[in-house]
Amino acid sequence: MDKDFAARRRRDLIIAAALAAIAALTPLFVKDVVVQNIMILTLMYAGLSQSWNILSGYCGQISLGHALYFGLGAYTTELLFTKFGVLPWFGMLAGGVVSALIAMGLGYPFFRLRGHYFVIATIVIAEIGLLLFHNWEWAGAAMGITIPIRGDSWLKFQFLRTKLPYFYFALALCCLAWFVTWWLENSKWGFWWRAVKDNPEAAESLGVDVFNSKMGAAAVSAFLVAVGGSFYAQFVSYIDPESVMGFQFSLLMALPAVLGGIGTLWGPVLGAAILIPLTELTRFKFGGSGRGVDLIVYGTLIVLISLALPRGLLSLFSRPKKTGVAR
Amino acid sequence: MGLLYGLIAVGLALIFGLMDVTNFAHGEFLMIAMYLSFFLFAFFAIDPLLSAPLVAAALFIFGAVIYLLLVRFAMRAKANAGMVQIFTTFGLAIVMRGLAQYFFTPDYRSIPQSWLGGKTISVGGIFLPEPQLVGALVSIAAFAALYFFIHRTDFGRAIEATREDPGAVALVGIDKNRVFAFGWGLGAALVGLAGAIMAVFFYIYPDVGASFALIAYVTVALGGFGSVFGAFAGGIIVGLVEAVTALVLPPSLKSVGIYSVYLLVVFIRPRGLFGSM
Fold it and tell me: What integer pLDDT is reported at residue A325 of this predicted model?
């Protein structure tokens, strides 16, 4: 069994490396800006969803408030950049650290809550953040922040003429989130998380530090999501509270993982690879009418997929587990 | 105002609180109800107050149909049923918003004249707006009726029993789907009532439901799941907190007060004020 497991992990790593290499080469063939845009968003959501999956999938603490960390990452980066001239690269790191600290600070009271009470608390805290940023004059209030254009430069992580650097960064982010998940999956933390998810009382009695394992998951998850947020801010070069901290982001982050397979290594990537291009294409095809046809198509898709495959698309591929009973 | 939140929350208290089914489309139910009373007014000149029972009846059918067509299957999922319910109803909410945009356009609409709109009534020297007052009375009546229904009738008991143990309930001859379809219908009818009254003094547009839905969730959770009285108390508290917050903070921050109180309450009492689950 151990041998199988190690082989599976090695196989996962090889597949990931191969996929990343293929993805890295695609811009050589795909020159269309619209398609490149979709690929960037797909990679970004894959990374975000992978990060969300760490806390909500592996550790079982369903958060529908991750927009808070996404927004904090975006705002930290841009406030530092526009007000103090700090380069976005440092801002990105700072945003991640701020988000991780806030996630742990919130964890103290939040992780005492269970079930619906927890989920609603996460929605509510993100909504509080949204409203505060709406009213925070110094941070641009409802107007948001427009990132000043200083020309193409890696130093300032800003590119006007080409989308390629954004593409490679999104790819790197996605790979990072995947790799962190892969690595943690087989660490002490990964086992603790699954134990906490399945049965917290039993885990506690067997010596798992339930509280701290939740805290660890929250910190890692928030850090990665915040990095995604700062990337997004640089990518769209304009942020306002609604566009980076709105409730829809919390759901958009969760959706790929849920559709692909929650609490699995490949679920978020698979979910994002299918969902995001579909979303963007429906918006592209039907969105122009302004009459909500894109919403109708998109909503129907979500309903159908979640009803048809409650355990996610990955469940299509998994073989039934061996029960250990001799036939 | 608080009792109006209560009125929106009472339907959710039944669906989410008592049957333990997540409904992320609750706000969109409200939106549909508001449009219904708008069109009944616009085409047939029926005052929203008169059409309220009609709207409630229509929503009853709508709620029951949604349960039978969608939610029933979402609940059947063995693995992560919670997420399946969340995203099925969330997808439904998006479809409903899209349909509303498609058929009704994103324009803001309002009912310009009605029996209640814009009028105030003086109670002991305090001027109260009539629509809100009627809303408050209807809300109290709805809560009382639901309380009675849940605790004093066989059907109410059947709903609670079905949530507790669907298997055992089937053994004593209760059809789970009939019970829950009825529960969903009733919950939708209640939110239909709320929508009919709110149509009098709120703008009506496709996204109107979203802002109220979250507060309704907070109201139900604040009171505690599984408690009708809790949702009622939650509604009153939410209204009071909103009024007090409006005095000290700018209006755009009024919801922050409500959300903070929710967090404070569940940190002290993780099951809400009167929750049993």
Answer: 40
pLDDT at residue A288, rounded to an integer:
62
* pLDDT for res B107: 75
| C-beta atoms of A291 and B101 within 8 A | yes
How distant, in Å, are the alpha carbons of A175, A290, A304, B204 from that of B106? 40, 9, 26, 9
Share of chain A above pLDDT 70, in %: 91
Query: Which of A55, A59, A120 is most worth mutating to test chain B (most B CB atoms within 10 A of its CB)?
Result: A120
Residue tagged 């707006």 (tokens): B129
Q: Which of B138, B177, B149, B147 is nearest to B56 (CA)?
A: B138
Nearest to B87 among A120, A297, A306 (CB): A306
Q: Tell me the C-alpha distance between A133 and A238, whole Å.
A: 15
Q: What is the Cα–Cα distance from A274 to A294, expressed in whole angstroms?
A: 16
Query: pLDDT averaged over consecutive 10-residue blocks of chain B (277 residues)?
Result: 73 77 84 86 76 83 84 70 80 86 76 61 60 75 80 76 72 76 86 82 79 83 80 83 81 81 83 70
* Residue ranges of chain A whose pLDDT lies below 50: 320-327
Looking only at the bridges linking them, the beta strands covering A238-239 and B120-123 are unpaired
Half-sphere exposure of A302 (CA within 13 A, CB side): 30
Q: How confident is the model at residue A290, as a pLDDT?
A: 60
- The dihedral over CA atoms of A28, A30, A33, A37, expressed in degrees to the nearest 10, equals -90
Q: Of B70, B106, B206, which is closest to A303 when you measure between CB atoms?
A: B70
Only one residue has tokens 């399946």, namely B84
Side-chain-side CA neighbours of A47 within 13 Å: the count stands at 30
Residue A225: name the closest of A243, A241, A197, A244 by CA. A244
Please give the residue of chain A at the shortest CA–CA distance from B250.
A135
User: pLDDT (tens digit, 9 = 90+) per residue, A228-283?
Assistant: 888 888 888 788 888 888 888 888 888 888 888 787 888 888 888 888 888 888 77
What domains, with CATH codes, occur in chain A? 2-247 (1.10.3470)
Set of chain A residues whose Cβ sits within 8 Å of the Cβ of B271: 117
Please name the amino acid found at residue A210: V
Q: Rounded distance, CA B180 to CA B201, Å?
A: 32
**What residues in B contact A121, CB-CB < 8 Å?**
262-263, 266
Chain B hits for A293, Cβ within 8 Å: 98, 102
Compute how many other C-beta atoms are within 10 angstroms of the C-beta atom of residue A37. Answer: 16
Phi-psi bin for B152: left (phi > 0), alpha (psi -120 to 50), beta? Answer: alpha
Q: What is the ipTM of this complex?
A: 0.80
